Amino acid sequence: MEKMQRQEETPFVLLKAILAAWIVTALLLMILALLMFKMELDESKVSVGIIAVYVLSTFLGGRIAGKRAQTRKFLWGMLAGLGYFLVLLFVTFVMERSVNASMTQLVTTVCLCVGGGMLGGMLSS
To answer: Which of 47, 63, 85, 107 is the most buried (most CB within 10 A)?
Structure first.
């Protein structure tokens, strides 16, 4: 009975993990914007900051998904990272009406998101 109940709530666990990752993303991007304003950061530093936001956010999402799933934590973390990337891709497409990134940038971003989620899932306790 408990196993059946856990399986039913698994999609909600993923949604909660992705939502938490996006909340962290919003907070970290606000901090990054404040740093850009106060410290007049150049483009390369902002790019590093955005990459750090992706990895930290998906790490947290993967950690949440791994804690809740309790089995195959790395897989649930990867799925949380992939879900984060898909939302990112969807929002980019809606806002710009196209995806102006090269295939290399897309592959790099999906690897960062999935890898961050997987690491978070593996390190969840």
So the answer is: 63
